[in-house]
Amino acid sequence: MTTPPFLSGKMLLAMPGMADPRFERSVTLLCVHDENGAVGIGIGQKRAGMRFRALLKQLDIDPGQAPDCAVHHGGPVEPGRGFVLHSSDWGGQDSLHVGGVCTMTGTIDVLKAIAEGRGPKQWVVALGYAGWGAGQLEEEMTRHGWFAAEGRAQILFDTPTDERWAACFKAEGIDPRLLSSETGAA
């Protein structure tokens, strides 16, 4: 059996008709993908009732200069665990470069830096993540569940959250209005 190409740095787009409603029209930046499985951060849905300044206050961090922006629903796994996807102009302990798209940091030092005005220039905050065991994502992709689009920093940082799903397809040359939730077999 050959090893499939790993997809770290790709944006996974839920296909219409995906069986799991938690991922309807979702956009997930795949941060890690190797023979042991995959981890992605959802960037296509906002966390209802959660704002960034309130999150900082819950963590006993003075919000200082931080904007009161949305917090994203990163995925169903560990929904209380936070991640910051950010530009590479800032790096802290345990920061991970994600396929030339951004850097991911899951420690509190990045939140403090943002609040103090010395953090990364661009960033997105998410709670939770999506995770797949070894071979699970590859299997889901064969069942018309996911489309792997090129990871693009401009979509992550410069496109409004509710427009990211369609923007990713359009960047791939696909009109998302023409996608069908029906699959066929030849």
TrEMBL record:
PANTHER family named in the record: UNCHARACTERIZED PROTEIN YQGE (PTHR30327), UPF0301 PROTEIN YQGE (PTHR30327:SF1)
UniProt protein name: UPF0301 protein G7077_13105
Phylogenetic lineage: Bacteria, Pseudomonadati, Pseudomonadota, Alphaproteobacteria, Sphingomonadales
GO cellular component: cytosol
Family: Belongs to the UPF0301 (AlgH) family.
